[in-house]
Backbone:
């Protein structure tokens, strides 16, 4: 159990000492901002150790519902600590060692009680700082403010009021899932992009076949123009085998092979393959199609403002579509 107990000390010890703001005076909270808020405060609560409940999840019981907590602990509840007496009463015939031990146990219970209630204050203070007052004002008391409002009450109010996923949120999620990816960005980021999108869909109460998610990932990878052989092998697979897990395994291996066979580490391994896309030609975001395989988006020495070093002939990323003609000085 931590020896730090004041709310400020606790906040300073948290992995997220300052929670990500969930809204502004003009932009309401939504599912994504609430999800991030819940993640951060859950992380803080779980890192603050406690012997209460099952003793394995810190103070998580203060920021999630009892139902969720019981599911995590196989039915072991958290029983809030009771404040012990300031001066414990000892039996008339108690020995000195017994008195010392009784006092020690009483001090231990007092520390547990203090930590429990200071944790409540710490989480509440963090939430009040991250949430514009207009979104939770109805929870406060006219004279006592939020002193009697628990962190869980604040979070529950936010989820009930602003946590529903709207149709527009699903459209935005679809766009995020299909966002372009290209090396040398780690392929794990693409996998996370797909996983987060799928989690969002599940949170909305819908289900997407994982083969559809794998298809989205395949389309993103194919647009890079760097995985021709791996893409062909994937297309030849039986539909039943085109699962998300197989997709990740297949293209993780292909991506590793691409990195190992790269010929230009300084320019990023995507440039080595790019020069072979069109024989004798390459692509530069600033200059367009160039008749010089050594001139790529990554190696360009005269980059225009906003130049994107990852742009290729297959994924121009908004770059020039012209054919560049070199003019000797």
Residues:
């Amino acid at each position: 159990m931590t020896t730090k107990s004041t709310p400020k000390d606790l906040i300073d010890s948290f992995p997220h000492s300052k929670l990500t703001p969930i809204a502004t005076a003009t932009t309401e909270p939504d599912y994504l901002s609430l999800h991030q808020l819940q993640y951060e405060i859950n992380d803080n609560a779980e890192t603050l150790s406690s012997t209460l409940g099952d003793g394995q999840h810190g103070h998580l019981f203060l920021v999630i519902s009892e139902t969720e907590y019981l599911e995590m602990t196989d039915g072991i509840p958290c029983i809030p600590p009771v404040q012990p007496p300031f001066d414990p009463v000892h039996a008339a015939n108690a020995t000195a060692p017994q008195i010392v031990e009784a006092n020690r146990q009483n001090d231990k219970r007092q520390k547990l009680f203090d930590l429990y209630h200071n944790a409540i204050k710490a989480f509440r203070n963090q939430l009040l700082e991250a949430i514009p007052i207009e979104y939770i004002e109805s929870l406060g008391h006219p004279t006592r403010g939020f002193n009697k409002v628990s962190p869980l009450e604040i979070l529950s109010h936010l989820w009930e009021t602003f946590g529903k996923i709207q149709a527009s949120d699903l459209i935005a999620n679809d766009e995020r899932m299909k966002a372009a990816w290209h090396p040398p960005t780690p392929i794990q980021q693409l996998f996370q992009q797909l996983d987060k999108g799928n989690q969002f869909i599940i949170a909305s109460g819908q289900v997407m076949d994982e083969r559809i998610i794998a298809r989205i990932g395949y389309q993103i990878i194919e647009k890079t123009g760097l995985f021709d052989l791996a893409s062909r092998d994937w297309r030849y697979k039986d539909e039943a085998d085109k699962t998300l897990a197989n997709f990740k395994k297949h293209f993780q291996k292909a991506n590793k092979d691409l990195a190992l066979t790269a010929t230009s580490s300084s320019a990023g391994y995507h440039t080595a393959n790019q020069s072979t896309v069109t024989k004798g030609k390459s692509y530069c975001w600033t200059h367009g199609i160039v008749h010089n395989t050594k001139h790529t988006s990554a190696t360009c020495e005269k980059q225009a403002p906003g130049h994107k070093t990852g742009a290729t002939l297959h994924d121009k990323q908004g770059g020039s579509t012209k054919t560049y003609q070199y003019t000797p000085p």
About this structure: Strands lie at 282-284, 288-290. Confidence is low (pLDDT under 50) at residues 263-277. The radius of gyration is 29 Å.
